Amino acid sequence: MILALAWAVAHGSTFRYAEDRAPAVVNPLFATTLSEARLDELLFEGLFADDPELRSTGRLATGFTLSDDRRSMTVRLRRDVTWHDGRPFTAEDVVFSVNAYLSAETASPEAGRVSFVTSAIAQDPHTVVLGFANPEYAPEDKLHFKILPAHRFSSPDVKRNDPFRATPVGTGPYRLVSFNADNSVSLARVGGHWSPPSIEELVLREISDKAYQAKLLLYESIEALVRVLPKDLAALGADRKIELYPYQTNSWWYFGFNLTNPTYADVAVREALSLMVDVPGLLAPIGTGERVSGPFVPSSPFYDHATAPLPHDPERAASLLAGAGFSFVGGRWLGPDGRELKIRLVAPANLETAQDIVINVQSQLQRGGIQVEPRFVGAAEWKEQVWRDRAFDLVLSQWSFDRNEDVWEQFHSTGTRNFGAFHDPEVDRLLTEARAATDPQQKKSLLRTLHGQVAAQRPMIFLFTLDSYAAMNVKVRNVVVHPFYFFTWIAGWAMPDGG
Amino acid sequence: MLAMALGAGCGSGSVAEPPPPTSLGWVDAVAADPSAFEALVAADRDGWIALHAHDAASALRAFADQPGGAGARRAALARSVARGDLATLTADAAARLASAWGARAAGAGAAPVPPAVRAAGSLAADCAALSLPEDAPPALRDGVAAHARGREQGDLDALERLAAAPLWRSDADGFERVVWDPCLPASAAAAWRARAGEGAIEGLGGAFLAAWGTADELAAGLAAGVPAGELGPDGVAAALGVTGPGDDAEDARRRVSALVAATDAVAERIIDRAPPEGAALATELGLVGRWREQLCLAMARRALRLGSPDAAAVWARAATFGRDGLPTDPSAPLLLATAELRSGRAREALAALPSSAGADPALRAAVDPLSDLVVLEGLGRAGDSKEDP
């Protein structure tokens, strides 16, 4: 045992994992993708986090006291924590972080997760008092957002291109060593961390070709794939060197309309385009999955099974377009203004799944007389063109939700992730009531109604959800995967044979 | 060499070498002598086809003209085990919902628990007693009384009929509230177990398609009081050396890997040594995979009983992989859901069930309280979401 361990230490342990896309930004304030959130999980910590039984447990917090009226919380902070640059973690960092998330100048897409906090005051270097807008039953469940180092910023009004993104500093069990020329990211274990991980090094590799990912795993050039395509599950599962881990992130693919474009303001036009898309035909080349008819996955408590997905019905689509003032001339649809209907479809670059879907739907819509102009953009451009500039008619993407399946930010008119500019008063009402509900059966009823209402308004063409697994070499031991953030419990993982 | 020896002893993480291939009882028997299989299925082919397809209900109908025969008894036993798996999940879900909701309401973190939900929780805590709190709604009391009558009379039709509808429902609060009887599956399981009868089920019919290897194993296990759903690991499977209880998920994964290796070796031996018709039969019907599937489910049940839900989840998942188009046992998602629920993962428990479960009356008794529990746990939270193309 001792000699084996010594051998492992001498040879080190490196965990190499594949992501379809490398993170565009390493700053929890601006994390919008799951790959960014996974990397943030390694580099940063929150006051609390889930334990393996999904109960909140202290990370940077050691304990707390709630006021009698439950409107304030005194949080005691860990004293043995330093930032990756050696500076001590203090209550001022918590104060700074709350202010940064909430700053209108920062415009953090994560602001909604912090908006229940109205004040943060450092009582002493290791005690912070948080004030809440309303009485909170279990505020520790909502204090999982990542804490940032105040000393690395000039103000809580943080810009997206702040240099922090290139030299991120956290308190997490791993620190960022380098962004490499091949789009990989190297991380190293933090010596002296309060919860030291066993694995010494991590390497994130951006590999967009899923088939290549699978080969690298089978040939042991990497240790893990975060996401396995359904069509690869059987082959990987049959290999005795590979273990499959469920990684259900309540995800669904969709085409989202830009509702600031007058062409798509008419729900009849949106319905027509939805009817033109053969969704099963898009799914077939990718593998197995389930169609979705609205903003939840079929296993969700909120899924309305009475709302059926739209069929593929080009005739009905044509009828709706004609009714909306469009005319079919020379094999092409012309809008009421006489101009040809052309759709700018923005999709993620270098993603095999996205490419398959785009090429397929382009062909489908072309047969229906609609030109599709696809544009594949990288992660950084996506944030600008889609989130900021709304420079699209249609986007292709996938949303993933944690176990709360909170779609407020996507569909409420004030939602920070509502880049399609959807606005429906009934949806706003349902979301507001559901958020305030204290009866789970009432909340379930409200959100099932919401499912139907969103489906009827068609701000998106809801596509499908795919079976989701991660795959790892069996030499990675004691693996427990967080159902959303993946790496939350990496401190317990081990590679006793090195790697 | 010394380091390697020490490393292997300390759990190096490498996959263990499989033990020498051994007999799997009925699997080898069928492969070696297909005529025994033909004799078994000759009179009741439809019934055995249905059992192979994990359709106990159809099997029971097919075997109806021979109620005391091997097929009918095996189908009743299978039905009992399946209802038992549903009973475990249903009772767990109802009990946890009532408990969690009550705790949250006491801390002003949720609305008061509806009396009907509390009543279901009370039932689930002790299905044998079927006791209700004083404020249980009258309509709910009537339903439980009907349940008690059906159970006392061993009236399977009545029990199955009652299970197809909610115990109580109401729109009084402006939305639908539904509560299901969490103990009906347990009563049905007991009734089916009684229908399966006592005493040995002789011959190939006593073991074909099962986790245990021989009819003698079945008889000995039942006589020793082993639950039918946990039979298998202590018989021919024990010779494989992989079916100890398993303490945790990591241990269970090693055992699953070793089991797969061992059974693959058996499959090869069968192909090599059995007569062509026997080898073809074993392959077409997926008999080795079937035995392995059933053993995994037996291990999952045992792990749940021993308080190792993480290990149970590994075994339940292992039962569904590599089925290659063959029918999968509907108990697998139920056991996986139970394992996830007991690990604190209510949302994962829901995801383990078929997406059609919400429309299946038999499964709604589990799905509804599970989904309520998931929603309860998320009350007041602002969830996280990310783009994930």
Topology:
The complex is a heterodimer of chains A (499) and B (389).
Chain A: H1 2-11, E1 14-19, H2 34-43, E2 48-50, E3 56-58, E4 61-66, E5 72-77, H3 91-102, H4 111-114, E6 117-124, E7 127-132, E8 174-179, E9 185-189, E10 201-206, H5 210-218, E11 224-228, H6 233-238, E12 242-246, E13 251-257, H7 267-276, H8 279-283, E14 289-291, H9 314-323, E15 327-329, E16 332-334, E17 342-348, H10 352-367, E18 371-377, H11 379-388, E19 394-401, H12 408-411, H13 425-436, H14 440-457, E20 460-462, E21 464-466, E22 469-473
Parallel strand pairs in A: 1-10, 1-11, 17-18, 17-19
Antiparallel strand pairs in A: 2-3, 4-5, 5-7, 6-7, 8-9, 9-10, 11-22, 12-22, 13-19, 13-20, 14-21, 15-16
Chain B: H1 2-9, H2 26-32, H3 34-41, H4 45-52, H5 56-62, H6 70-106, H7 115-125, H8 138-153, H9 156-163, E1 168-170, E2 177-179, H10 184-196, H11 215-223, H12 249-273, H13 276-284, H14 287-305, H15 309-318, H16 331-342, H17 346-352, H18 361-377, E3 385-387
Antiparallel strand pairs in B: 1-2
What does it look like?
The complex is a heterodimer of chains A (499) and B (389). With 499 residues, chain A is an alpha+beta fold. Chain A contains 14 helices and 22 strands. Chain A is 27% helix and 23% strand. In chain A, strands 8-9-10-1-11-22-12 form a seven-stranded mixed sheet, with helices on both faces. Chain A has a five-stranded mixed sheet with strand order 18-17-19-13-20. A four-stranded antiparallel sheet of chain A has the order 4-5-7-6, with helices on one face. In chain A, strand 17, helix 10 (352-367) and strand 18 form a beta-alpha-beta unit. The relative contact order of chain A is 0.15. Mean pLDDT of chain A is 94; it is low at 1-10. Chain B has 389 residues and is mainly α. Chain B has 18 helices and three strands. Chain B has helices at 2-9, 26-32, 34-41, 45-52, 56-62, 70-106, 115-125, 138-153, 156-163, 184-196, 215-223, 249-273, 276-284, 287-305, 309-318, 331-342, 346-352, 361-377, and strands spanning 168-170, 177-179, 385-387. In chain B, helix 2 (26-32) packs across helix 3 (34-41). The longest helix of chain B has 37 residues, at 70-106. The radius of gyration of chain B is 23 Å and the shape is globular. The N and C termini of chain B lie far apart (48 Å).
